[in-house]
Amino acid sequence: MEAYIEKCKTKYLPWRGGAYAKNGWEYCLGSKRDCERFVEDGAINLPWGTKPDENEYQKIKALRLIPNRNQLKNTAIPSFVRDLVNLEFLAMPLPFVSGIKPNGIPDSLKSLMLINSKECGEVIKEKDLRWPEEAVLPNLRALQFFDLGGAPEIDSLLGISENTLPALQYLECGIKKAKRKLDTIAELRGLKFLALEHVNNYNIVNFINSPLKALSIVDAGNKFPIASITDIKSIELLWLNNIRCELDCQIFVSLPRLMEVNVLNSRKIVNINALLTCENLESIQFINCGRPFNEKVKQLLNAKNYKRLEIDFA
Predict the structure, then answer these.
(1) In this structure, what CATH number is given to the domain that contains residue 243?
(2) For residue range 165-178, what is the model confidence (pLDDT) as tens digits?
(3) What pLDDT is stored for residue 127 in this prediction?
(4) Is 108:87 a contact under the CB 8 Å cutoff?
(5) CB of 90 within 8 A of CB of 65?
(6) Contacts of 295 (CB under 8 A, 6+ apart)
(7) What domain count does the chain have?
(8) Other CB atoms closer than 10 Å to residue 206's CB: what's the count?
């Protein structure tokens, strides 16, 4: 059974897993090699610098812009994009943010993925990457930032705000050493799903002012204040991966709406039987966590008949 948080994620990102490509709704602009993995799902590949036939505009719901190193230097978003009136998902290199113009992206867009690669570094040095204040995407619900291997770190979320992205509910990004990203998150008050990677030991909860339903934390340090998540009483779904600090399961009891806990690759688990006292818990998953469950606790958990219980490989 799929984790609740994964189902929630798919609601914000319905193109996941090639869902749009399989229906012929996804196009990729770039070389055959760079687009190959998407074409395998059914996406239609066009060479960089070309555009789809105008008769196909209405069926395009997903578009990936994948320029090579030289093509990346021109950060202008192709002009035909504004005419894709049913476009819901757009993926493009991070420097293309500087090319966002008013009315350059259709209002239908619901999800935007910005990709930072090693090749972006030279372009980023020459561009102002703050989100243009005049570029409003009124229906954008999901924003993802991905740093590929070797990519230079960007120290902000490009000045995004509730004014430019008024419908934003889903945000996914890495923190690393760029604490200013947290300052931007603090200004966003409508988030429902927050997915953060490389949070180190930052007290991220101090920067969350949204009524989160789902929280994903990947890669936290030995001194990460995990107990602070008890201050976010609205949380229903938790995903914790590679949490290197001690994880006391008693904190889950202090989250009154908690329906699901997923813990992966985290070895300092204590008070595991506190899970039994979480009144609204329906879904539990622990994987590669140093076998925190003894036989007695396993039996008690099985007896509660959770809708989803995956602890055999804990």
Answers:
(1) 3.80.10.10
(2) 999 999 999 998 77
(3) 62
(4) yes
(5) yes
(6) none
(7) 1
(8) 12
